[in-house]
Automatic annotation (TrEMBL):
Keywords: ATP-binding, Kinase, Nucleotide-binding, Transferase
GO molecular function, one term: uridine kinase activity
Family that this chain belongs to: Belongs to the uridine kinase family.
NCBIfam families: PRK05480.1
Phosphoribulokinase/uridine kinase domain ranges (all copies): 53-248
CDD domains referenced in this protein's UniProt entry, alphabetically: UMPK (cd02023)
Protein name per the record: uridine/cytidine kinase
Species whose genome carries this gene: Bombyx mori (Silk moth)
InterPro entries in alphabetical order: P-loop_NTPase (IPR027417), PRK/URK (IPR006083), Uridine_kinase-like (IPR000764)
Reaction it catalyzes: uridine + ATP = UMP + ADP + H(+); cytidine + ATP = CMP + ADP + H(+)
Pathway: Pyrimidine metabolism; CTP biosynthesis via salvage pathway; CTP from cytidine: step 1/3; Pyrimidine metabolism; UMP biosynthesis via salvage pathway; UMP from uridine: step 1/1
Length: 289
């Protein structure tokens, strides 16, 4: 091979290396930039960080709401103005879908399966959680268990640092499940749950004993076994005995508290924080907890 051919060849090789290098540098930036909007909301040169999203699943009356309440109390959030809260909590029940007229009739007779995934508007739940993760203020509908429907009242959820969402099937829908940075499963035995559900549904949800037991045997128990219990395997932390488990609650509170300390709530100037400081999905590597 002549010297000029060698030179031409090595120049070609050098050019190739440069192209490859440029390509990998560009794809590195593309990756970073593409990741950024999911973690930061950019408005007028300011960025507000995405909240740390915690899913809390478990069977009916396992104590999901009570666990969330305890966490809020221990973090001193319960008595704060809604606009001031750094930790907020919502329920998957706000995302039950509207029923058709025949379904409404069945629901009134206790013959509608509210424990089946089809009872939920999972698209709306997903869209709302994405808005929350984008740092938006959202309206959360109130669910009315007496009329078995979404009421016309909503509660405003202001951007917060940590958002808890509790519900029987929060880990059921894969796209929803993948949004969580941390997944908790409240594991309370079925007898205890039934013993709690009966008085609650009679006193708070306007049911009679026969209705509660029929619904439990026909729908609640089979659906728990088919749809809710299998999602326990997705949990990062299982909380046996629910709100009675003070050790588990204290550990979770400590973790959230550390997260809040590491992530001051003020809005950040653009470029003020690195991507690696922001929450990572628990299904991927590098989780912060
Ligand atoms: N550790 C507990 N000890 C006694 N009662 C409890 C406990 N946890 C929850 N409860 C009661 O059981 C019922 C269901 O609890 P809740 O937290 O609403 O469960 P979930 O949100 O899982 O449906 C409520 O009436 C609640 O007050
Ligand atoms: O109109 C409705 C809607 C839901 N339910 C029951 O509620 C539970 C879920 O709420 P928990 O607070 O987790 O118990 C679910 O088991 C449904 O059966 C209802 O009875 N009526």
């Amino acid at each position: 091979m002549s010297i000029s051919a060698v030179l031409r060849n090595s120049r070609t090789r050098a050019l190739c290396v440069l192209v490859v290098l440029r390509k990998s540098v560009r794809s590195f930036y593309t990756y970073k930039m593409a990741e950024k909007p999911a973690d930061y909301l950019s408005t007028n040169g300011f960025e507000s960080k995405t909240p740390f999203l915690i899913g809390v699943a478990g069977g009916t009356a396992s104590g999901k709401s009570t666990v969330c309440q305890r966490i809020m109390e221990k973090l001193g959030q319960q008595h704060k103005e809604h606009t001031e809260r750094r930790v907020v909590c919502i329920s998957q029940d706000s995302f039950y879908r509207s029923l058709t007229a025949p379904e409404r009739l069945r629901a009134e007779r206790g013959q509608f399966n509210f424990d089946h995934p089809d009872a939920f508007d999972d698209k709306k739940l997903l869209a709302t959680l994405k808005d929350i993760l984008a740092g938006k203020k959202v309206e959360i509908p109130e669910y009315d268990y007496i009329s078995n429907s979404i009421s016309n009242r909503t509660n405003t959820l202001y951007p917060a640092d940590v958002v808890l969402i509790e519900g029987i099937l929060v880990f059921y829908f894969p796209e929803v499940r993948d949004l969580f940075h941390m997944k908790l499963f409240v594991d309370t035995d079925s007898d205890t749950r039934l013993a709690r559900r009966v008085p609650r549904d009679i006193m708070e949800r306007g049911r009679d004993l026969e209705q509660v037991l029929n619904q439990y045997m026909n729908f609640v128990k089979p659906a728990f076994e088919e749809f809710c219990l299998p999602t326990k395997k997705f949990a990062d932390v299982i909380i046996p005995r629910g709100a009675d488990n003070l050790v588990a609650i204290d550990l979770i509170v400590q973790h959230i508290s550390d997260y809040l300390k590491k992530n001051p709530s003020e809005v950040l100037l653009t470029g003020g924080s690195s991507i690696s400081d922001s929450p990572q999905r628990s299904s991927k590597g590098g989780r912060p907890h």
